[in-house]
Amino acid sequence: MKKIMVVFGTRPEAIKLAPIILELKKRSNIDTTICVTAQHRQMLDQVLGLFNLKPEIDLDIMQPQQTLPQLTSRVLTGMDQILAEHKPDTIVIQGDTTTVMATAMAAFYRQIQVGHVEAGLRSGNLNSPFPEEMNRRVATIFSSLHFAPTVAARDALINEGVESGKVFLTGNPVIDALNLIIDQPCPETARKLLERAGLTESGSNKKLILVTAHRRENFGARFRSICEGLKSVVTKNSNVVIIYPVHLNPNVQGPVHDILGGVDRVILTEPLTYDVLAHLMKAAYMVLTDSGGIQEEAPSLGKPVLVMRTETERPEGVRAGTAKLVGPVAENILRETEKLLFHPDQYLKMSRAINPYGDGKAASRIADALESGKITDGDFCGGDC
Q1: pTM of this structure
Q2: Under-70 pLDDT residues of the chain
Q3: CATH code, domain carrying 319
């Protein structure tokens, strides 16, 4: 029996790995162990409960105000002990967190095979996103199996010298996870927020904009500019309502509540569970974000995405027309949002674009590759069929 250990530490990792774990657990010849570092304790636990996942191993390394070097050292030393004890055949990691980078390094030191989900994403700038761009490049070096979500990600890996036979084009499992959640009834929390936004009334002309923003490289003046742009959108457009789940980081909480607190038709909430966020996205007119995963999820629901960053490691959405880079610039945020509010042709062009990120079958492809080294149903075409 093949021993596979799936390691993650944050909510986005858990969301994207959950469908893979569920698929692996169906296979009788695979012994699947879940190990969490709990890099983000509270937000991680929400997802574990949502998908009914119970970790066999929990490092619980989260500490208040820990630095990146402290976090890295705790994950590295903690995972080294776990790998020495459990001796898995393969480690599966996802994305670009500190957990991913340090776990890949620990596995390399123990000469354990690493499978990297969402491999090959590149922004081209080591400082943006920081430190994620470095993390994912390091993970590539230590990985033996590379699960690329898109054609561009696959090509980036091959252009960097990764052997093509070790790269699997799978699509992104976040689409699998989103499909699982959207098929469920709307959660009570989401329903109450939509009522508060005035979106459940018959004939309501309100347009909901869902906002997520917490990127480290935007902290400071850039983040204040984002908030000023959001404030302008609602003050200049009386039919717009913003729902913004605010990240717990003080660098986010401060400017958001200073600039947007008390503004009419801006609903600030605590971080929401994934199922609530997904159903709000389904109800939204559009999404404004500096996050990563939501750039992949929103197009599956036909929602245009304005990306409040200067670059993105997910350029496929921009090329396909589902997303547009507007930067962390107040004037751009207002201008591009109003284009989508006032010009139906531009809105329809973005909302109807083909999603290049997945078809909901990524988990089975990744499980196939982990089990047998090949994908039985064929690669994901990524919109290039």
Answers
A1: 0.86
A2: 201-203, 382-385
A3: 3.40.50.2000
Mark whether 124 and 194 lie in a shared domain: no
Q: Which residues are catalytic?
A: 96, 118, 132, 214, 216, 247
Q: Are residues 55 and 152 in the same domain?
A: yes
Strand partners, 209: 242, 286
Residue 233 lies in domain: 188-351
Asked if 10 and 154 sit in the same domain, the reply is yes
Q: Note the pLDDT of residue 201.
A: 66
Residue 180 falls inside a structural domain: no
What distance in Å separates the CA atoms of residue 183 and residue 278, rounded to the nearest whole number? Answer: 11
CA–CA dist 276, 342 (Å, integer): 28
Same domain, 138 and 260: no
By C-alpha distance, which of 240, 275, 269 is closest to 252?
269
Specify if 79 maps to a domain.
yes
Which 3 state secondary structure label does DSSP give 359? coil
Q: Which of 129, 10, 17 lies closest to 367 in space, CA to CA?
A: 17
For the beta carbon of residue 41, count every other beta carbon within 10 angstroms. Answer: 16
Domain count, the chain: 2
- The span from the CA of 138 to the CA of 131, in Å, is 11
Which residues have C-beta within 8 Å of that of residue 65, sequence separation ≥ 6? none
Tokens of 185: 């009834």
The pLDDT of residue 215 is 87
Token code pair at residue 53: 């996942």
